[in-house]
Amino acid sequence: FNTQELLHVIYTLEEKSNTCMLFGHNPAITEVANLLGNKEIANIPTTGLIVIEADVKSWASFAEGKTTLKLFPKMFK
């Protein structure tokens, strides 16, 4: 599981899907969030959630979106 494999999954999603939820491990999940989102994240912890939205015509053209939500467990202590 690495960044390139995860990007391949995203870029080859069916075009009829307009939402995608990914689960993964670091460092790939944090690297992909930083590549596709617009906010720098040092580390997505276990059970962390990041939402990235983008207005693109196809998954293959997804280059940069807007990071609209960041929820980490420490926020709920």
What can be said about this structure in brief?
With 77 residues, the protein is an alpha+beta fold. 23% of the residues lie in helices and 14% in strands.
Q: What do these coordinates show?
A:
This protein is α+β, with helices and mostly antiparallel strands. The chain is 23% helix and 14% strand. The protein has two helices and two strands; from the N terminus they run ααββ. It has a two-stranded antiparallel ribbon. α1 packs across α2. The radius of gyration is 12 Å and the shape is globular.
Which helices and strands occur, and which strands form pairs?
Layout: H1 3-11, H2 28-36, E1 49-53, E2 66-71
Structure keywords:
alpha+beta, globular, two-stranded antiparallel sheet, 77 residues
Shape: globular
Proportion of beta-strand residues: 5-15%
Q: Which structural class fits the helix and strand makeup?
A: alpha+beta
Radius of gyration: 12 Å
Euclidean distance between termini CA atoms: 31 Å
> Biggest sheet, open or closed, and with what strands and sense?
2 strands, antiparallel
Q: How many helix segments? A: 2
- Helix content bin: 10-25%
Tell me the series of helices and strands, N- to C-terminal. HHEE
On the 0 to 100 scale, the average pLDDT is: 95
> Regions with pLDDT < 50 over 5+ consecutive residues?
none
Please report the total strand number as a whole number.
Answer: 2
- Strand order in the largest sheet: 1-2
